[in-house]
Amino acid sequence: MQEPFKPLSLSIRELFGNADSLYKIPQYQRPYKWQDEQVDRLWDDIYEAYQSGEENYFLGSVITAKPREDERSAYVDVVDGQQRLTTLMILFCVVRDLYPGLNDDKEEDPLAVDINTINTSITLHGKSKRLKLYTHRQHQSDFETLILNGDTKRLSKPYKYQIRTDEEPKYKFMNTAAIFTGKLEALGEEKVADFIDYLFNKVMIIRIDCMNRGFAIKLFQVLNDRGMDLTAADLIKSFLIEKLYSRYKDDNDTAKIKEEQFIADWREMEQTVKSSDVSMNDLFIIYEYYLLGYNPRRSLYDELQDAFEHRDPNDVINDIKLFAETYLKDICESQDTVLFSFWYIRWNMYWKSILLTALHTKYPQYDELKLQLRRFYYLYWIAGKTLSQIKQTSFNIIKWVKEGKSMSAIELQLNNKINDDNIISLATANLQSQQIASEPWIKPLLLLMEYNATDNSKKQGFISLSKDLHLEHILPVKYYRFNEWSHFTKEHADKWLNSAGNLTLLSGKKNIEASNSPFATKIGVYKGKGKYDNKNEKITAFAITQSVMYDYESSKYGKQWNLDAVYDRWEWFFTEAQNLLKVDFTEVIKAHQTELV
User: Fold this and answer.
1) Mean pLDDT within 391-420
2) pLDDT tens digit sequence for 167-194
3) How remote is the C-alpha of 197 from its chain's centroid?
């Protein structure tokens, strides 16, 4: 019986020098991705072992398999280890170009690595390249032109933005070559010769040759559980490809067409994800939540493996690709101000999963769902609740949406949950706090009020919670420094300074100028007349701050920010919150008015 795999302990000389040492990186693999950090780490690991005189240094494992579509090929697929193999090959080519006379003075030493050994490690019998990259039709051409057949001495280090471009690994080829060129030149030829001898003769790799790609991918998955640097998305991809191979094992032509379509869809999905704010792993987690409709009990990979077990891999990847496209277009790039409010919520994987489920299933009451979901999350956030209080309900909503439950039924369930947890009372108490300025939700809530104030008057873009967005105290924190604020007693200031009646929003340098100033100076800043004024920003961008300025200009409060102004601002805040959160604050406002009397 044929063994499913055969592990071989090989030196680098053997790994690249044996007759069967012909490798290709198959189409389903990711392109070459290593940047400075990974290349430096590989070099440092080997060089430190060399300097310390380690008898043998273990560099890890490589998993290979015979390609199913051409079992007579002399090349084997590299299922795992392509980054190290490609990096080592680039190192060989740099040594070849820098030191063509390497170890010429050691003709009698059988272990000395000369230029012939280097060339044989790059090309077998001067004909077959030891390493071929099939991750994209252009990648092998670039690799041959720049590295295998080129002059690496002439390659300069690319710009950082070029190195980060995954679609064109040629810049990473060039970068790795430039890194090795610098390191080898710094050592000098004599030291390099000694180091290369160590690399070829003392550095070992375990090559695990598998009888087929299906088994190789399974082994790859098992080893990942032992700590290999792979993502859940990588494992899911390999699992689906394995299923694809099994599904069409008796039809090579169809298998090839299906594999090419799978890879094309996967790459298209990757590009879509790169244009969004999520990673591939995030996308698969959101998709997992959509599929399950309950809290996962096992790892992402295990849950999705079961979910995909009896589905066509091409159908699976096409569905996830559509999922990603919907996310990018209808959520990530949406200019809907209701959706804007979700981006401030800390429980982002849950609201994204719910809304994507609704979009993906074409839930007919999507707009009503958004409003109910926003109310639910903001009330729990303001009430001081954590993820554990909203998690199960979030999964329930996914399930209800998939089942096509009406919004009236979902709303009833949410209201029951809110009542059971006493959320309205808790949120109301926190909104009335005299220290509301320190709450993490106050800026987002004011931004919701800002969107609400500008919805019908002009198109409002998304406002980020960046360092340039400031919470402005209209009565300044250091009011006591200015005679203009003497109408506020310490008792009044302590009560209202950090409350809802004294807060608004400013952006950028305007806040620096306005923070601790007399009211008239603040109004000038709100209008854009300060020393930091930008000619394109004649008035502060926020409508909820402009209203303070308009009251001043109309002499509504005698051109002062006084207690009457603070009281009215407080009532305005609760009226807006009532509208947004759909909570009846009538009694709260009445109690406030009674207090004033």
Assistant:
1) 97
2) 678 999 999 999 999 999 999 999 999 9
3) 42
Measured distance CA(578)–CA(576) in Å, rounded: 5
Q: In terms of domains, do 413 and 468 share one?
A: no
The answer on 477 and 526 residing in a single domain is yes
The reply to whether 349 falls in a domain is no
Residue at a domain's end among 210, 225, 240? 225
Tally of domains within the chain: 4
The answer to whether 92 and 85 are in contact (CB under 8 A) is: no
Domain span including residue 417: 358-427
For the ranges 359-363, 364-368, 473-477, the lowest mean pLDDT is seen at: 473-477
Task: Mark whether 242 and 221 lie in a shared domain.
Answer: no
559 burial level (CB within 10 Å; 0-12, 13-18, 19+): middle
Is residue 543 within 8 Å of residue 450, measured between CB atoms?
A: yes
Q: What is the DSSP string of 279-343?
A: -HHHHHHHHHHHHH-S--SS-HHHHHHHHHTTS-HHHHHHHHHHHHHHHIIIIIS---HHHHGGG
Q: Tell me if the pTM is above 0.70.
A: yes
Report if residue 346 sits inside a domain.
no
DSSP lists the bridge partners of residue 210 as 5, 65
- Write out pLDDT tens, residues 335-359: 999 999 999 998 999 999 999 999 9
Q: End of a domain among 427, 448, 478?
A: 427
Whether 223 shows a pLDDT value over 80: the answer reads: no
Shared domain check, 65 and 10: yes
